[in-house]
Amino acid sequence: GLHNSRHIHQCCVACEQCRGILMQKGGHLHPTTSAVLLWPLQVFRIKRDPPRDQWQGKKMSLRITDGSDLWRVLSKSQYATVEIPEMEFEISADGKRKIDSLYNHICAAVWNLGQHVNSSGAGMVEDHKEKIMDCVSQLQSLLDVDKPFTWVVHDPSGLSTFSDMTNVEEAPMDREREWTCPEGAEVVVNREGVVQNVSAQ
């Protein structure tokens, strides 16, 4: 079953280990420098969001070829979506900045889908439930990296970044795309990654 998955267990253990390391080594969000210290691995300096008319949308692509790639940390802005094209799967923008390993980003998606199925109970159509659980199974298999896959970040604000940018391909937005921001404003980004229009809802 979903809750007995070894990947979920590994994810929870990893999270607890990270919390322990941060507490022992003084990892924190510094109130003056706004730096997230992930001792002893990396430091993220949190930038203030620029005005939307100054956003420079970007696309970042990383080819995942082995398990070590999944421990690279992604600072995902509250406006960014993540795409796994091999699965036609997308992690949407949820209005919250998230700094975590790719492994844990995937685990969170698995958990959220499982919770959705469990909370829906008998009210969910069986065919829909099966499709979601098939997606969960595919996501879990990614954690083993049995075969390479691609992790693509689409960020209209340009604020997202990886802890290690090695082999990360960066490009402006490659197509016009509408984004609905957490505040409810629609943002249209052109092919050059420049914000063309911001309209309040």
TrEMBL record:
Listed GO MF terms: zinc ion binding
A single Gene Ontology CC term: nucleus
Keyword terms of this UniProt record: Metal-binding, Zinc, Zinc-finger
Positions of the Zinc finger ZPR1-type domain: 21-164
InterPro entries per UniProt: Znf_ZPR1 (IPR004457), ZPR1 (IPR040141), ZPR1_A/B_dom (IPR042451), ZPR1_jr_dom (IPR056180)
Entry similarity comment: Belongs to the ZPR1 family.
PANTHER family documented for this protein: ZINC FINGER PROTEIN ZPR1
Name of the featured protein: Zinc finger ZPR1-type domain-containing protein
Organism: Dunaliella tertiolecta (Green alga)
